[in-house]
User: What shape does this take?
Amino acid sequence: MKILWSKKDINGKPGQEVKFIRTSTISSLSLKNGDVLYVTPKAGKRFVTEDADENVGNGNMSTSGSSTSLASMTSIKSSNNNFSIPLSVEEDPVDVELSKIDGMIPQEKTSRCNHTSNQACIYCAPREPYDPEYLRENGIKFMSFHSYLRKLKREKTKFASIEDINLKIKPGCTTHPPWPESICSACQPNALTLNRQTYRHVDHIEFESPSIVDEFLAYWRTTGSQRAGHLYGRYEKFTQTPLGIKAVVVAIYEPPQECSRDHVRIIPDENEGRIDAVAKGLGLARVGWIFTDLVSDTSGQVKHFRNIDSHFLSSQECITAGFFQNKFANATKLSSNGKHGSKFVTVCVTGSKDKQVHMEGYQVSNQCMALVRENVLVPTKDAPEFGYVRESSSKQYVPDVFYKEKDKYGNEVTKMGRPLPVEYLLVDIPVATPKSPVQTFSTGFPVENRPMEGHLQDFAALASLKQKMPNLPEFFRDFHLLIYLGTQTIQPLSLEEELGPLLAALRDEKTELVYDWAESSHWRNIELLMQNFNDGYQ
Ligand SMILES: [Zn+2]
Ligand SMILES: [Zn+2]
Assistant: This one.
């Protein structure tokens, strides 16, 4: 976050910039009694009003350094929208990139155009990225999040501010004793009416290669038990939707879990931090989760039971998705708490209409995230398509939650969320694999946490793969193998100092650095152990 300090010039416009350093004094800055100082936020174009944008100078002042500047910055509020600027929010690179793009959709010259080719008229003027007609014509069901921001900006103010939904009692009310004794109109959270979300934070989910999914499904194929996994990958621009984002999945990590034919329970993972650190070292992040709900039928195909007549995601799955989305919230400077919504996706592998194994992608809405965040939504026992909004208790005040539905006469009626059809909370996302698949980090090393004969991720598997794959840069190119190196206890490797340089070399595809790393004593020790292992000394 940068801000610009400037003095007024003779025309009354903000002029000469004032550069503060630690030792600045009034006289060293040549400030006189009566001088007016302007403070202008300079975070990025979306933050800067058009007037200020014209006057942005070169010598920005960073907030780190002077304590006075930091103190004044936290209290800066835009006069017209009561918007405070969040401190040090690090947005995803893809969001930064998209926020700088114009996003207008260029149009071809039409037969109705009556002008030369380099002009534009109402028939051929560029269209807004959220243009509903364009989206419909191109079969795009939801506008992208960045298109939605442009829409807000165009419709409301120069500042598109987005705040998370608050379902909590507002703190600091002193006129009465606290809940459950009392509540008043000033501190009571507003009732929430559920709307179907019109935009999505992720427009497309892409698995780098079908083999990533096949490897994941191998567990179900072998055991008949359902399975869940964490999706690791990155977010990229998705060009088929204006200002769109896709989640690219590079690897699936399978956390410790209890699974059977009809349920999966994920167990707390003592390695969670190490897995995330290995992924981060490779330039990857957790972008979602995946689970199977597959039942074979007698013909060797799979049953189709998730549909409009039953449910797409159950209320319990929506709550889990909401939990993850809150945990992996979307960082944005446009919200006062520095976050809004999430780019974390949910993928369900189940039977399609034609009884094939297929993937369905979802997110829950930001309204659902709020219901889950405040522990307001619970599953119902026997109907997966319904959730239930908790009643207020002495511990928790729960605001009313409504949804609107057409009755049998076609009239819109408002209903209480007890029960609550979860379809109101869902946003669906297409899932696909690219025409030319790639495998950045996969050679077939056994997957973690699979208690299966011949599938164990252990030292024997490492030693045997090394024998089959003597080429080191190739050998290391496997997410599961790197996870193993980062978590094994035979010759433990510290993540930053010892494993870190290898991860960076693989991330940057620097083959010579991989060989350099293999000269290190920690890897030499592991090689020696593998040699002994392969020679039969265990
Ligand atoms: Zn024209
Ligand atoms: Zn009150």
